[in-house]
Design goal:
With about 280 residues, the protein is mainly α. It is built from twelve helices and six strands. α6 runs parallel beside α12.
């Protein structure tokens, strides 16, 4: 049901967004088409109708709100960090244990700081690990499947159904962009779903951790809006742009490749990390 409703909503919403001028230019294509942007808002609204009311719902809704505002009025990233911290409020609880290496560790008051940092980092980490077709929605889909294998929470199945349809439209060659809304919504959803088992979530998100580390020099300064690889229009391949991202690191290590191949490689790495998290 979730997948059907999402498909219908995106099919109807895409031309509406296009008509309203909510579009983005696909900079890594020869013809540079303008396609509907911020479709994660539509998918996010559908998801929020289906998931159960509770901490996960409120965190997800708050993440959607942050991302939607960013898609519409382009919030400064430092402001988004503060707003992301507020999303921890629904997760506040007296149970301050986390699972680490198979052992329950009591963090006490530091648990709240720990989870606050997760709320700030997770959505932003997904948001900056982007730039090629299918990567934003694809990484979220793979992480969600891994989370379901660990938690068995049915709300994650609902998320997977919605995200799969979004990925179908966003995969190479994309017919729509997901926007910041889906990235922030997903980050909050993952943290709320994992909570006391963030150790496995961290393993699943090793690519996002590496990308964040590589991005730090630029994030600490005036971070450019676009940090994607360079596009070689003549040969229709991507080249390393010199920006601090995992995608550029892969291009430096392996050489130029097509956008589709680079996307598949990035998602394969994500799958490996998810499998690692499940078996450890």
């Amino acid at each position: 049901m979730e997948a059907v409703v999402t498909y219908m909503a995106l099919t109807v919403g895409a031309p509406v967004f296009q008509h309203l001028g909510i579009t983005g230019k696909d900079l890594l294509k020869r013809d540079g088409p303008h396609i509907p942007e911020a479709m994660g808002i539509v998918a996010g609204i559908v998801l929020c109708f289906f998931i159960q009311r509770g901490a996960v719902f409120w965190c997800t809704l708050f993440g959607l709100w942050i991302g939607a505002l960013d898609d519409i009025i382009d919030i400064k990233w430092r402001t988004k960090l503060v707003m992301s911290a507020i999303a921890y409020v629904p997760l506040y609880q007296n149970n301050t244990n986390i699972l680490l290496f198979g052992n329950l560790i009591e963090l006490g008051m530091f648990y709240h700081v720990y989870m606050l940092l997760w709320c700030i980092w997770c959505g932003n980490a997904i948001n900056i690990y982007a730039g090629i077709n299918g990567l934003e929605s694809g990484q979220c889909l793979i992480i969600a499947i891994g989370l379901f294998c660990i938690t068995q929470e049915y709300d994650i199945v609902r998320y997977i159904c919605v995200c799969f349809v979004l990925f179908w439209f966003n995969r190479f060659p994309a017919s729509m962009f997901v926007g910041d809304s889906w990235c922030y919504l997903s980050g909050m959803f993952f943290v709320a779903s994992a909570q006391h088992d963030t150790e496995k979530l961290a393993v699943m998100m090793i690519p996002q951790i590496l990308n964040t580390v590589l991005s730090l020099p630029e994030l600490m300064g005036e971070c450019p809006r676009h940090r994607m690889p360079k596009y070689d229009r003549k040969n229709n391949v991507l080249l390393a742009s010199g920006k601090g991202t995992l995608l550029n690191a892969l291009l430096i290590a392996l050489g130029p490749m097509s956008e589709e191949r680079l996307g598949c490689l990035a998602l394969c790495i994500q799958c490996i990390c998810v499998v690692m998290a499940i078996i450890i």
